[in-house]
Amino acid sequence: MGAEQETAFLKDVNPNLGIVHSVCRAYVPRRASEYDDVYQDIMYQLWKSYPHFKGESKFSTWMYRVALNTAIAHLRRSVRAPREAELTPAVADAARAADSARADEDLERLYRAIEELSDIDKAIVLLHLDDHGYDEIASVTGLTRTNVSVRLVRIRRTLSERLQPTR
Fold it and tell me: N or C: at which end does the chain have fewer Cβ atoms within 10 angstroms?
């Protein structure tokens, strides 16, 4: 990729980096090293695929597709591969302490609830939370607009139940 294309890539990607963080947070929320791996995989795939982006959809829609597909593929690979010893919670927390963008407690609870959803439902809710319309969500996920609508009703109900305070 030449300098001109690199500049265009950065101009398109930088305003949409929240997409990559949202996808990583939803698919690998508690494992700091795996989060970084998925983030880098997504950025690499975006970089590698950028010359093929034709502008037939919004850039953010294309970026979501790449991010979701990459995150899901990474998780499938990691399930098949033997896991190395994971960091203890204390070490992982210490590593995350430097992250100034740490979410508040309610956001943490929401992401924990989202983490429990199926892969497709995670994708739908992330797109919805980023204010994408039903048509765009359908385009990214390959579902029909009606299916997206029905799933969102069910997802909202499920998340609402999971986020109810325990008595």
Answer: C
